[in-house]
Amino acid sequence: MEQFSRCCLITNSSSGSNRQAAVEEVKDALAQHEIEIVRAVEFPEQDLPTGQELDAAGLSLVVVFTGDGSVNSAISQLADWTGAVLVLPGGTMNLLSRRLHRDFEAGRIIELVAGGAARRVRPNVCQSRHGFALAGLLVGPGTCWSEVREATRDMNIPAIAETTVEAIGQTAEGPPVAMIEPRLGRPQGYQLVEITPGEHGLQFDGFYADTPTDYARQGWAVLRRKFREGPHDRIGMVGDATLQSADETPLEMLIDGEPIKGEPVERFLATRCPVDLLATAHSD
């Protein structure tokens, strides 16, 4: 049973759920359970800690209360470190936190960890030439719907309307993405491919919009922050795969929510997370 008494806390005030009041609640929960914050980092204004710095300070626990993109940056920085990282739900989607803790709130997760009711795990992640995705990766012109999601987060009605119209146009006109190795899914490809790492490999789902009804269904799903309810196919579960843009233009990607412009052909494979994460529940 592993217990911790000191930590480094990483926060990001621009993350979806990471308002100052929420940060203070996390700090209070750590104090309540006698986990001292020896170092506090506000990312990206301050540099993320390295493993060497944490070892020099005698710290073996990093608590990350940010969105998925900042979590990715922190864990990338700590690759091969021998300590443990506790990921709390501090963003909009919190996909990695859900993998590790289901729907537990931050205070409950801290309580479990402080009581020794957590274990170290190294879950599968999705590796590409651009780094790895801990929670998930989206590929294709449909990644532009993320801008609609951000507008809905702030309930910015004019921005919602503008980005929705732009997203429909970009999705309709953008080149679809097809899986070419192995050859699975629709030969003509999809407007959006979602890659989700799990314990059995990488799950690929293809989202399409062939008709006005499909666009309406997909748009409504995104506006409710449930884009996975839009029309889609389960392409398959594989250990690695290669995706290609239909017209050989660079692939638009979101790696843990962060936009990346890829090459026309990209390979993705399942690998283990490069640092220990603390888990308090079984993954789905």
TrEMBL record:
Protein name, per record: Acylglycerol kinase family protein
Superkingdom of origin: Bacteria
InterPro entries: ATP-NAD_kinase_N, Diacylglycerol_kinase_cat_dom, NAD/diacylglycerol_kinase_sf
Pfam families: DAGK_cat (PF00781)
Key words, A-Z: Kinase, Transferase
TM region(s), chain numbering: none
Domain DAGKc: 6-129
High-level lineage: Bacteria, Pseudomonadati, Pseudomonadota, Alphaproteobacteria, Sphingomonadales
Organism: Altererythrobacter arenosus
